[in-house]
Amino acid sequence: MSDNRIRYEQPEVGIVRIVLARPETRNSQDTRMLHALNDAFDRAAQDDTVKVIILAADGPHFSSGHDLREKLEGSMDGYPTVGTWCGFGCEGVEGLMAREREIYLGFSERWRNIPKPTIAEVQGKVVAGGLMLVWPCDIVIAADDALFVDNTVAMGIAGAEFFNHPWELGVRKAKEMLFTSDSVSAADAYRLGMVNHVVPPAELSEFAMSMARRIAEQPLFALKLAKESVNAAQDNQGRAGAMYTAFTAHQLCHAHNRLIGGQIVDLAFFHRQKEIADRW
Ligand code: ZN
Question: How far is the CA of 161 from the centre of ligand 1 (A)?
Answer without folding.
Answer: 6
